[in-house]
Amino acid sequence: MPTHQSHPLPAPLNGLAWLENLENPTNPTLATWGGNGQLHLLRAGMQAPLTLTLTPNQALLAAVATPHGLITAAENGQLHLTTPQGETTHLTTLPHKFPEHLAYHAKTNLLIWAAGKHAGTLNLNNPNQAQAQTLQAPSTIGGIALSPLGPRLAISHYGGASIYNLQNLTEAPRKLPWQGSHLGLTYSPNGKWLISSMQDQSLHLWRLSDGHDLQMRGYPGPISQFSFSHCGNWLGTNGGSGVPLWNFANKEKGPAGQQAKVVADSGSPELLVTSVVMHPQGPFMAVGYADGLALLVNYATNTSVLLHHPTPPQALESPQAVTHASWTHNGLALAFIQPNSLHLTHFSN
């Protein structure tokens, strides 16, 4: 049977990630960060999170897990590196404030950041080195994604997406046009498709072999999260009353000509899925809703197990949506957050 922990936290939370602990690989550290510049660390055996104040009164807007530890970006542009044990180092201050996106490319040991219209790289072998590589997008950057096939960086913006050579950002990018405002961005696991969420509550797909477009409309709410199944055949997103699963089993055609399979439907067009994350090894996903309900869903059978009760109706004036969720690499622990609380579930083998 699963065991659960819940912890109220003092400020709105912006995200969470797992940090692998080299000293004890079976006990990773959970990190979550928020609007008051605080970082919270929790792992099995701790009664409560360890809280570190990295940037007082400066919100932590983005973070990314790396083999070195968690790198956080504050609204004033400061980057900090924090180990799973809680040791923190100031890395550098970016040339632009309000960095909303971070990514890490393992093969080159590069940190990628994006703030407003600007993006750049930081070599973690020498983080104090001046940032020689930067780019300026046509408009505010909505999202960034790294190709699984090579050192390529995709950014989304108004009018489409652009793909850059990560090792030479001054090269002219490959442009993928589509009218409208593009926000979140992800690659398919095989690197054949680039997928963006749009401000008009639709998905846009580019087949990278030839630039062919697919457009998925009809979402009742904004799309902010993508999650591919461990086999790479299914893409699930939030933004609907259930989770639409787009079929990518055909590596060339993708979901062209197919309707999405919808699972975990709330039954109400007003009760939307706000978070979805696939299990790393099996046909399961964690699904969170706008009212705080959280489920473990078997998407092969469309059956579910309750993880967290919804917020009582009398308390709904206070937003309690499940905003983010994350599995450990072995799939034996799941963390998810609401605006001011952290929840951790451990599953037995």
Written description of the protein model:
- The radius of gyration is 20 Å and the shape is globular.
- The protein is 0% helix and 50% strand.
- A hairpin with a 5-residue loop joins strand 8 (78-82) and strand 9.
- The chain has strands spanning 3-8, 13-19, 29-34, 38-42, 50-53, 60-66, 69-74, 78-82, 88-93, 99-105, 110-115, 118-123, 134-136, 143-146, 152-165, 174-187, 193-198, 203-207, 212-216, 226-228, 234-237, 243-247, 261-263, 273-278, 284-289, 294-298, 303-308, 324-327, 333-338, 341-346.
- A six-stranded antiparallel beta sheet has the order 14-15-16-17-18-19, with no helix packed on it. The protein has a four-stranded antiparallel beta sheet with strand order 1-30-29-28, with no helix packed on it. A four-stranded antiparallel beta sheet has the order 2-3-4-5, with no helix packed on it.
- The chain folds into two domains: 1-93, Thrombin, subunit H (Beta Barrel), CATH 2.40.10; 94-346, Methylamine Dehydrogenase, Chain H.
- The chain starts with a strand and ends with a strand.
- The protein contains no helices and 30 strands.
- The protein is mainly β and 349 residues long.
- The mean pLDDT is 93.
Offer a quick outline of the entry:
With 349 residues, this protein is mainly beta. The chain has no helices and 30 strands. The chain has two domains: 1-93, Thrombin, subunit H; 94-346, 7 Propeller (Methylamine Dehydrogenase, Chain H).
Whole-number average pLDDT?
93
Going across the biggest sheet, name each strand in turn.
Answer: 14-15-16-17-18-19
The ordered H/E elements are EEEEEEEEEEEEEEEEEEEEEEEEEEEEEE
How would you name the oligomeric state of the polypeptide chains in this document?
Answer: single chain
Question: Mind telling me the CATH superfamily name of the largest domain?
Answer: YVTN repeat-like/Quinoprotein amine dehydrogenase
Broad shape? globular
CATH architecture of the largest domain: 7 Propeller
Largest beta-sheet details? 6 strands, antiparallel
The percent of residues in helical segments reads under 10%
Total number of beta strands = 30
